[in-house]
């Protein structure tokens, strides 16, 4: 039996990858303790297991029944590898090991202004993320990403790594290299007190900007100024002339403060207004509001991003501008619906014939499936799909 343990999109991807190679009665899952069994901004492993008829078991049972492999994907408990009768006990950790072992791996690269991050497939040993490394995938961090963007990227790249290695993990030669002690770091669950987070202007403007990015995660928290959520920070060209923390300007959209070196603007959340501007196709308003959202892939509770809204509205100029800024052409809503799936409605209704082929040119895939397993072709007639294919 193969056991998948963990949470969120990456664990569901692992389960669905296992189902391509094993029958449901050959797979079991161990869900994180906070898995509600309901999909939200991330998918539920418990819900996916129930949908596919896969048994949910405890970690104690997993020690006894795992006979092929045990794969930890964002799992919330310490695993003791010696308790398994097998050696194929793996984890995918959301960092470029040996750096950032432990907790809050979406925070540290942004706090430290790193240019890149990575995901690491490794054997589980008695330590915390210290096992020998099987493979690693490294990617760049754009300057506007928040910790939410980084977490989504971790899931995406971990899925790619798992796809590349899955067959070997369950039935193949898996070689690994010990982790280096150089640049190794570790952070426990006590490293950050989220209840005590606050904006501290007694810092450099650069450090404060990085702090805003590192804790901007809409589903969890934003740092706040005078009770208002701050989604981004802009370093201003002027050197601070007054004591750090001095308020020098305030509007409904932002406040400007002195720090110990440069003045900084803290931008307040206006995502609803941004989505309305995208729906109207008002590019001028979209550009003006860009600092008032937490990155170009920010999303409302249903997972609707500015790109999804603009694609559905057929707002070509807005779609084009968002893609130029780095918006992800495949970032889905909470049901797995892609911007391309929404752009097809605008195309077929005649609202816009240019956004659909533009998304394809920028990397959107016709074959991408939503969380029900249906691709774009499943939502249109053969004649309509031929029209869409001909648009590219």
From TrEMBL:
InterPro entries: Ank_Repeat/CDKN_Inhibitor, Ankyrin_rpt, Ankyrin_rpt-contain_sf, Formyl_transf_N, Formyl_transf_N_sf. It comes from the Bacteria. Keywords: ANK repeat, Repeat, Transferase. CDD domains: FMT_core (cd08369). Gene3D superfamilies: 3.40.50.12230, Ankyrin repeat-containing domain. ANK repeats lie at residues 302-334. Residues 79-161 form the Formyl transferase N-terminal domain. Its EC number is 2.1.2.13, 2.1.2.9. One of its GO terms (molecular function) is UDP-4-amino-4-deoxy-L-arabinose formyltransferase activity. SMART domains: ANK. The keyword Repeat applies. The keyword Transferase applies. This is Bifunctional polymyxin resistance protein ArnA.
